[in-house]
């Protein structure tokens, strides 16, 4: 039944709006009391599929440019269904040699794809936020160890706050991870030389000297407002010189490594101590999919293994218990959709997809520059295009309110989704085209719809 509904649903994704608010009334059908006597499996699933295919946000279609939303390639989706079919417990080798082996294989493939040394440790996580928790927990262990404290057994009590330094590009999820780890979200200090948040390297350098290098540097590879990145080689030099930890947030930006056109942005990634990336963004596998890579695999087992013991499998030992390398215990076999999609399309397929998104983004940038009532606010470097609506005759002080209102209207209209953000004090649109189905026609529609909805607002 689900398989039967899938074909027409997926085939129709390109035509339907991203969201049709008139269908939201269906959400009431989800409610009601807990049934005493159930409806039976067929009736329950039929109901769910009918209301789901109508009321869902069709964000895996080609025109959801809000936040940073990927999609699911056909192979990834089928791999995900297989994960549910087989229902593996992927935390322990003994429970699933299949899931364990698949995880080891895909982590190896991903390291190759991103240009990371094979010697790095890795673990699949539900998201980039949890990959931050994984990498930064290892950083926290390393940092506390310099004070002679085993933080896994003693905790942080008695230690000073752990200094975390970044540029103004730092993502909120880094702060959230630090907050979860008991380090506190406000320990992040940003060093920015302008209101776009670009790194002030000299200021960070001076502060690193002051704290004797006992600090964590967070480099951002692909920020969510403009796709801008910190200079990783310079930050790696800084980390090396001061003996600091270098963590890279490459949630989607790490895919820059796939194309010769953008690979320079990811140069130096191999010098990081920990790297965060997402699968449910540019890899186009279904939610929930993230990866954490850590230079020193032993630190992962010290941080997450039982009793703080380092459990180090031999390099060719396949009996890895992935629940000793990350924050989860029981977990699903999230390697399977990744395996299926990488096996299906290969490095070439992904390079072609990334380059198509670079072209689509540049095309959108061109359209914005040519439109008299749109203003491009940052160069298009990756797969994010930052601009605002700026028709003639509207004074600067009214533009933020106008763009916020236009953002609301765009989501209510539903044909194309893009969200607003704040960049250098301006309310802006920052669509991110990274769904495998997206073509130039989809971003052309975004421009048309925005101008169509904006025109009556200023009349
Ligand atoms: C999306 C994103 C995150 C958080 O990822 P989740 O998978 O939503 O937890 C972190 N950093 C950047 C740059 C992102 O784009």
List the main descriptive attributes of the protein structure presented here.
single chain, 459 residues, alpha/beta, Aspartate Aminotransferase, domain 2, Aspartate Aminotransferase, domain 1, seven-stranded mixed sheet, 13 helices, binds pyridoxal-5'-phosphate, Pyridoxal-dependent decarboxylase, PyrdxlP-dep_Trfase_major
How is the topology of this model organized?
Layout: H1 2-12, H2 41-55, H3 74-86, H4 97-114, E1 121-125, H5 128-145, H6 151-154, E2 164-166, H7 172-180, E3 188-190, H8 201-210, E4 216-220, H9 232-242, E5 245-249, E6 274-278, E7 290-294, H10 297-304, H11 335-370, E8 374-376, E9 387-389, H12 396-413, E10 420-423, E11 426-429, H13 440-458
Parallel strand pairs: 2-3, 2-4, 4-5, 5-6
Antiparallel strand pairs: 1-7, 6-7, 8-9, 10-11
Helix pairs in contact: 3-11, 4-11, 5-7, 5-10, 8-9, 11-13, 12-13
The protein binds pyridoxal-5'-phosphate.
């Amino acid at each position: 039944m689900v398989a039967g509904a899938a074909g027409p649903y997926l085939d129709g994704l390109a035509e339907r709006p991203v969201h049709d608010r008139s269908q939201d009334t269906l959400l009431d059908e989800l409610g009601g009391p807990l049934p005493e006597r159930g409806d039976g499996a067929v009736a329950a699933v039929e109901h769910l599929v009918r209301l789901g295919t109508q009321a869902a946000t069709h964000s895996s279609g080609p025109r959801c440019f809000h936040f940073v939303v990927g999609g699911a390639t056909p192979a990834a989706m089928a791999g995900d269904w297989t994960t549910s079919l087989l229902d593996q417990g992927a935390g322990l080798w003994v429970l699933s040699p299949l899931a364990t082996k698949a995880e080891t294989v895909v982590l190896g493939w991903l390291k190759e794809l991103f240009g990371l040394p094979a010697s790095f440790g890795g673990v699949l996580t539900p998201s980039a936020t949890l990959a931050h928790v994984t990498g930064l927990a290892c950083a926290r262990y390393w940092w506390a160890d310099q004070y002679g404290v085993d933080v896994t057994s003693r905790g942080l009590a008695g230690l000073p706050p752990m200094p975390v330094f970044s540029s103004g590009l730092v993502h909120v999820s880094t702060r959230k991870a630090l907050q979860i780890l008991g380090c506190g979200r406000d320990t992040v200090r940003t060093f920015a030389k302008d209101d776009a948040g670009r790194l002030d390297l000299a200021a960070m350098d001076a502060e690193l000297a002051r704290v004797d290098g006992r600090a964590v540097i967070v480099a951002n590879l692909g920020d969510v407002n403009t796709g801008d990145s910190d200079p990783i080689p310079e930050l790696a030099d800084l980390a090396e010189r001061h003996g600091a930890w270098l963590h890279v947030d490459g949630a989607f930006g790490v895919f820059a490594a796939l194309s010769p056109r953008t690979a320079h942005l990811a140069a130096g990634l191999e010098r990081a101590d920990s790297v965060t990336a997402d699968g449910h963004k540019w890899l186009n596998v279904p939610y929930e999919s993230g990866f954490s890579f850590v230079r020193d695999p032993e630190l992962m087992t010290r941080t997450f293994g039982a009793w703080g013991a380092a459990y180090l499998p031999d390099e060719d030992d396949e009996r890895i218990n992935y629940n000793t390398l990350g924050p989860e215990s029981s977990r699903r076999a999230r390697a399977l959709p990744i395996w299926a999609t990488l096996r299906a399309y290969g490095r070439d397929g992904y390079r072609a997809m990334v380059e198509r998104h670079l072209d689509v983004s540049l095309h959108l940038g061109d359209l914005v520059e040519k439109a008299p009532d749109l203003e491009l606010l940052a160069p298009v470097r990756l797969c994010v295009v930052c601009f605002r609506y700026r028709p003639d005759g509207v004074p600067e002080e009214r533009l933020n309110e106008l763009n916020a209102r236009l953002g609301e209207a765009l989501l209510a209209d539903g044909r194309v989704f893009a969200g607003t953000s704040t960049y250098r004090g301006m309310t802006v649109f920052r669509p991110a085209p990274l769904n495998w189905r997206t073509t130039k026609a989809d971003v052309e529609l975004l421009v048309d719809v925005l101008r169509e909805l904006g025109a009556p607002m200023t009349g």
